[in-house]
Amino acid sequence: MQFKLYTDVYEFYNDTYGMLMRHEAQNLIPLGNIIIGHEGKDKTDWRDPVNWLMVTISDAKGIQLTAIMTPPHNITLYATDNIINPEAINCLVDGLKDREIPGVMTEKTLAEYFAKEYTLRKGTTFKTIMTQRIYELTAVNPDIQKVGIVRLLDKKDIHFFPYWAEAFYAAGSYGKTEMSIPQDADPYLYRIASKKLYILEDNGIPVSMAGYTREMQTAIGVAFVYTPPYERGKGYATSIVAQISQLALDKGFTRCVLYTDLANPTSNSIYQKIGYMPICDSLQLKFE
């Protein structure tokens, strides 16, 4: 097995893009990242490839394992054609022995296998942060009831959006209610300027939000779904996700992809009613 460490994002893109596209929806995160790096339009925060860890593990048959980490985020992996090669995992772990990896987020079986080998070699442990399910949608259920009007998030929303954003981040742990108080407007203005986030209004009042994440060749990620507690149970999240999913399909994407926390039965039920179908389960593991 050959451990290849990349310093050129363009070379890494050329070597791995086609392979990752074999499971486009499953590889939403690594694909989206290498597209960002390849385009080079945005190098804010973690998006500058100069700080990335990019690795492939190959044998005579070709690449068997792909790994990318965009600090401070976890490493993401893809076993070619979802066939786990133990030798490839061991080779990767050997190559990472002098690096600190905070955790892994990838397909469940691969995540568990890698975490066990990595922590065994490091003499540490790992714990599950979140059990996720990846869904994709190719057509919106026509029977879904749509309420309210969807519009792009705008600068005029700066008076409430930062608080919704922090509440959304806090809810990354299902049931968590403590959130940070926004201090600096710039990160939120950056989000607004991306023109990827949408607000659902009911009678002119903002009641829910959702938006897009990574754009790929045929798929686009849907995320940032948040409804304030006092507006829940009214079908708002269902409506906005259905509407922006249809909007993405109308723009020419053939599928929408989203991650859910399996600890949240409500969101998993909502997305399936809209037309999202499960692709695979994913784990977010933290190394301790």
TrEMBL record:
It comes from Paenibacillus odorifer. This is GNAT family N-acetyltransferase. Residues 148-288 form the N-acetyltransferase domain. Pfam families: Acetyltransf_1.
